Amino acid sequence: MHDLLSDFEIERLPLPDADLLFWRQVDLGHSYNSLLQELIDASDWRQEEITVYGKPYLQPRLSAWHGDLSYSYSGIRLEPLPWTPTQLDLKARVEALTEHPFNSVLLNYYRDQRDGMGMHSDDERELGPQPAIASLSLGEERTFLLKHKTRKDLKTVKLALPGGSLLLMQGDTQQYWRHGINKERRPCGPRINLTFRNIRT
What we know:
Elements: H1 2-5, E1 11-13, E2 19-23, H2 32-42, E3 49-52, E4 55-58, E5 62-67, E6 71-73, E7 76-78, H3 85-98, E8 104-110, E9 117-120, E10 133-139, E11 142-148, E12 157-161, E13 166-170, H4 173-176, E14 177-181, E15 191-197
Antiparallel strand pairs: 1-2, 2-13, 3-4, 5-8, 6-7, 8-15, 9-14, 10-13, 10-15, 11-12, 11-14
């Protein structure tokens, strides 16, 4: 499978205190639109509640957690649903590209321009000190934001994530950078991203 995928260009994004690899397009074995629709229709979506400054809020997106182990973040405990055949196929392709093993995936469903994700780091203890997280995008292009935690001289980085793209965050990225996706003013269609990760026991 690695030979099948090796023709796609890999870019290393030049950010200090980070290790980011970006594929603008990857071969997923099926059309991006058909995969997007299958995941929308077949996933058991939930809208999780988080607490911010003592007040409960519904996350402005839907999510689903699949894999081998449970996971906790922002006060939410996620128990895994079984892998689907499509998810396992995508996992194998992402593992071949990134050369990292993954045992879980968090799917985020941005239904339209009103959905987004606040700035955060994936630095939970279950992920280990230098986690590798691979984010596969399907559907509407959205702008991915990266902001350094301590260096005020560095501007917020904006990266367009089109459907079929793959972003690998590894090394010290989660230690020094936060990332997120703003809501949009313009109307936009649905987007799903699958964030593959390796949970440690």
